[in-house]
Specification:
Length: 291
Amino acid sequence: MRSMLFVPADSDRKMAKAMASGADAVILDLEDSISVDGKARARGVAREFLTSAMATWTPAQPRIYVRINDLATPFWQDDLAMLEGGLPHGILLPKSRSGEDVHQLSVALGHAEEKSGAKQGTTRILALVTEVAISLLQLPSYIGSSSRLVGFTWGAEDLSAEIGASANREPDGSFTSPYRLVRDMMLLTATAAEVPAIDTVYIDFRNKTGLALEASMAARDGFVGKMAIHPDQVPIINEAFTPPPAEVERARAIVAAFEAANGAGVVGFQGQMLDRPHLVLAKRTLARAPA
Ligand code: COA
Ligand code: MG
């Protein structure tokens, strides 16, 4: 998933727009963009939207995720109850504290699938693993925590509030040291868990140049996608995470060169030595190439 567009779950208008945005996924948000007093109403609006959107969903449309409230609140169980009958493709778990939270959500989803008559294990989990400090100290616990895990993502806003940092970006727009650390730790955890890493939101949503730069740096570093908060961000993100035709061509040629070498571990390619890591990278590029 290259682009995942957040949309407050209390807005019919935005949810319809999000489905037409070209995003690879939309995330209906019941958490931070919905006030405590607005949660019940948002659940009702989201339920109506989801029931019909999932019943008529086709693979040409964005996948549908729901961000429920975190497991330390009294809200998340009501959020899940709202989903019965129209389970989305996946759940975004915010403020996750450890792999135990992912496991607990996984068990609850199993019950929801049973009640909804859905196939067991089909509802995926994307975990936001950097929003509370304790999670960062327990990152290894996420590895193998659930077969539903479809990836990890990170966020700087909640962690800044918890730490008491007055800013999380330098004047030039780059993240300050603590947030560069957690971004990188999350990327390594995703790698060790063999699931994709999705980059965080870029909240300065009118700044297209800044977004394009941040997205291209994330793609370079090995993230497969980035979350969005505004439809205008979607095409910029999709472009950054789609390998350009020349790169795809080169990857095809590298794979072909290894095939032609009949199992050799090393080949000469355009005057350079290539061995196993180059082949692995080429295959990853082909996996991300447009069909
Ligand atoms: N999804 C779908 N549609 C969106 C959207 C989103 N995330 N953000 C904006 N739009 C729509 C607006 O409704 C508007 O449509 P309209 O003209 O038909 O009413 C159009 O896109 C242009 O919006 P714009 O005026 O540029 O922005 P705004 O001031 O209305 O909204 C935000 C700004 C930040 C409030 C809005 O982008 C938003 O709600 N983002 C998501 C926030 C969120 O979910 N946060 C939680 C995760 S961090
Ligand atoms: Mg938050």
